[in-house]
Design goal:
CATH superfamily of the largest domain: FAD/NAD(P)-binding domain
Strand content: 25-35%
CATH architecture of the largest domain: 3-Layer(bba) Sandwich
Number of helices: 11
Helix content: 25-40%
Shape: globular
Bound molecules: flavin-adenine dinucleotide, 3,4-dihydroxybenzoic acid
Number of domains: 2
Distance between the termini: 46 Å
Length: about 400
């Protein structure tokens, strides 16, 4: 016997994208159901992004979930690029007038969960065999199993916010979906450590031994990364090995005062650029990592997911308020235009800041020349700055 639940918008995926979409729709009186294949503890524990664009902060504020972000988020008006120990500051205040805010994805997710529960949101966690159905009809549905019990959510629209590995994108027929992909031949090994950050601002470093990034979560907790092999395992990297590499790659100047200590989280993320088109199929909409992946170098993944769901919530709200489907009909086109610009920036910064095994001496000199040009050209620095703080929504 299949248990059936009715809602307006069935959201697959309870990551930051799905949670924010349900919050924005709920604020407009639109009913949603959230389905995830994992549970809340697992979702909240995933250590991922750390830098929020001003537009993302404003979206969380407008959604009414930013009390703690406003108190605890660290505003940064600049960051540094380093090349073989030489340093160049991108002055976000002078170049754009805007900051970015350091606040972990884990915290964004916790704040959203807390608000959704307080407002009585219906969640289905640990859902198996999640399957969107009848997407071309006016009554699509999503069926799944929980503890062996079959359930079906019937709805007007399905929002696929289920990340890169999710089922939503794969529900679009192969002859409709076009994908674009670039896989980078390395990964990022990230650690968390309860030591004050080595620098007040983030430092992205390219060094002959590979990329390194000094980031943070608070004034007492640092998040540091090094470029590693695509096949490396976290166990290949003892803390001692990590600290030795990290210090060399930052360079003696930037690493001065580095406080090392035992890491309490260590994980590897592979780098990929990926876009799926279109982002709508019938009454299914894709948003966030379900439709696109950027390499993490520009800190764009989470911000892009937030931008998508802002545009999607506007489209759905307009439909329910006025019956006007203009924004629904233009959703994919509108979002993809911005997505490609952000893909371009993330690819460009990744290409500049990493050691590529296949790079010839010519390409290495091109990287250095680009860094030197950035150091000498306000126009070039401004290009980086305006992308880093976030492009406007279309
Ligand atoms: P997700 O956060 O992936 O959420 C998708 C949700 O869908 C998950 O909860 C998942 O359990 C659920 N789901 C998946 N499949 C199914 C299914 N079949 N049925 C139901 N539910 C399903 N970005 C940065 O900017 N900086 C970083 O340092 C950074 N590091 C990252 C490290 C890793 C390992 C990864 C994977 C990503 C990282 N990102 C980073 C990217 C950023 O975290 C993502 O862009 C962001 O999480 C996207 O949010 P989302 O809601 O679209 O997807
Ligand atoms: C962090 C991650 C990024 O990808 C980035 O560009 C900046 C910061 C972080 O995890 O803190």
């Amino acid at each position: 016997m299949v248990k059936t639940v009715k809602t307006s918008v069935c959201i697959i995926g309870s990551g930051p994208g799905g949670l924010l979409l349900s919050q924005l729709l709920s604020n407009e009186g639109i009913d949603t159901v959230l389905i995830d294949r994992r549970d809340q503890v697992h979702i909240e524990g995933r250590i991922r992004a750390g830098v929020l664009e001003q537009g993302t902060v404003e979206a969380l504020q407008e959604a009414g979930v930013a009390d703690r972000l406003n108190r605890e988020g660290l505003q940064h008006y600049g960051f540094e690029l380093a090349f073989d120990g030489d340093r160049h500051r991108i002055d976000l205040r002078a170049l754009t007038g805007k900051p970015v805010t350091v606040y972990g994805q884990t915290e964004v997710t916790k704040d959203l969960f807390s608000r959704r529960h307080a407002q009585g949101q219906q969640f289905f966690f640990n859902a198996q065999n999640v399957q969107p159905e009848n997407l071309l009809s006016t009554k699509p549905s999503v069926s799944f199993l929980i503890d062996g019990q079959a359930l079906r959510v019937t709805c007007d629209y399905v929002a696929g916010c289920d990340g890169f590995q999710g089922v939503s994108r794969r529900s679009i027929p192969a002859d409709v979906l076009k994908t674009f992909e670039r896989v980078y031949p390395f990964g990022w090994l990230g650690i968390l450590v309860d030591r004050p950050p080595v620098s007040e601002e983030l430092i992205y470093a390219n060094h002959a031994r590979g990329f390194a990034l000094a980031s943070m979560r608070s004034e007492t907790r640092s998040r540091y990364y090094v470029q590693c092999g695509a096949d490396d395992r976290p166990g290949d990297w003892s803390d001692d090995r990590f600290w030795e590499e990290f210090e060399i790659r930052l360079g003696p100047d930037a690493a001065r005062g580095l406080q090392t200590g035992p890491s309490f989280e260590k994980s590897i993320a592979l780098l990929r650029s990926f876009v799926a088109e279109p982002m709508r199929y019938g009454n299914l909409f894709l948003a966030g990592d379900a439709a696109h992946i950027v390499p993490p170098t520009g800190a764009k993944g989470l911000n892009l997911a937030v931008a998508d769901v802002r545009i999607l919530s506007r489209a759905l709200t307009e439909h329910y308020r006025t019956g006007n489907d203009h924004w629904i009909d233009t959703y994919s086109e509108t979002v993809l235009k911005r997505v490609w610009k952000v893909e371009r920036f993330s690819w460009q910064l990744s290409t500049l800041m990493h050691q590529f095994p296949q790079n010839s001496e010519f390409e290495k000199r091109m990287q250095r020349a680009e860094f030197d040009y950035l150091c000498s050209s306000e126009a070039a620095s401004r290009t980086i700055a305006e992308n880093y703080v976030g492009l406007p929504l279309e």
